[in-house]
Recover the amino acids of this structure.
């Protein structure tokens, strides 16, 4: 059993990977496949086939800080651009390593979601933190990833170790 303790969200957008802190709620809503009826007129029983997949959403609520990743979430919302969200599970620590838009190594298991921010909402309650609620409309299927502490840089024959800051340190002797 894996507890929610240690679960973190990272957003990769415009080349930056940002840790979204102060998350109070996180929910990944599943996909739904449409149902298409394929019954012929003379058939005694109805028949069905899978239709178009309707990708779900990622919903999160944060105690808003007005800077850093929270500010970037609002900028991404207003831009309408696609971002990649990495939900890092509590079986490890550290930031994921992105090569372009792909997660290639990290120190924990997790899920990669891709989509655009479709809604934002604000909650102002007496004697509470201002909360920002964001919905990411997924544009691709969920990618599951497992933890890894070593990477292989494709086409180079070079292996590197993933550092705690989410970067890879290549072995000495590699001439980039």
């Amino acid at each position: 059993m894996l507890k929610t303790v240690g679960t973190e969200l990272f957003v990769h957008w415009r080349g930056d990977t940002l840790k979204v802190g102060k998350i109070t709620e996180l929910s990944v809503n599943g996909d739904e496949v449409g149902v298409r009826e394929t019954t012929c007129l003379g058939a005694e029983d109805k028949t069905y086939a899978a239709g178009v997949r309707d990708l779900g959403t990622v919903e999160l609520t944060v105690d808003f800080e007005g800077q850093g990743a929270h500010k970037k979430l609002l900028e991404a919302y207003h831009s309408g651009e696609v971002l990649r969200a990495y939900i890092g599970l509590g079986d490890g620590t550290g930031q994921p390593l992105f090569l372009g838009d792909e997660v290639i190594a990290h120190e924990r298991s997790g899920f990669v979601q891709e989509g655009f921010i479709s809604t934002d909402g604000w909650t102002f309650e007496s004697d509470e933190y201002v909360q920002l609620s964001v919905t990411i409309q997924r544009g691709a299927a969920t990618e599951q990833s497992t933890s890894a502490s070593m990477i292989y840089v494709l086409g180079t024959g070079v292996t590197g170790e993933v550092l705690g800051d989410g970067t890879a340190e290549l072995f000495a002797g590699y001439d980039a």
